[in-house]
Design a protein that fits this description.
Blueprint (H helix, E strand, L loop, with lengths): L9 E5 L9 H5 L1 H8 L10 E4 L2 E4 L10 H5 L5 E5 L4
Antiparallel strand pairs: 1-4, 2-3
């Protein structure tokens, strides 16, 4: 029996000119929340963080494309883009 690996077909895009650095997306992200609950201090494992007053994607591979961060963003600076398979 073969195991199929499913690759994420979405990528988070941050429109930094719209971002106010509030951190709502960082707090809402379920991946970030799980890591916080595990008391994992390694920021490189987190999906999003706020640095220098703007949201940035830290680890795109950690993102499962759920869209919770997009819904939490009041400035609409985050969006999920469909990645085309090649």
């Amino acid at each position: 029996m073969e195991t199929e690996t499913r690759k994420n077909v979405y990528r988070i895009h941050v429109r930094t000119r719209l971002c106010n650095g509030c951190g709502d997306c960082v707090t809402a992200c379920p991946i970030n929340e799980r890591l916080r609950l595990e008391n994992n201090p390694n920021e490189e494992l987190y999906t999003l963080r706020v640095r220098n007053g703007k949201c940035e994607v830290v680890n795109l591979d950690a993102c499962d494309g759920c869209g919770v961060c997009v819904e939490a963003c009041s400035t609409r600076s985050l969006k999920l883009e469909l990645v085309e398979e090649r």
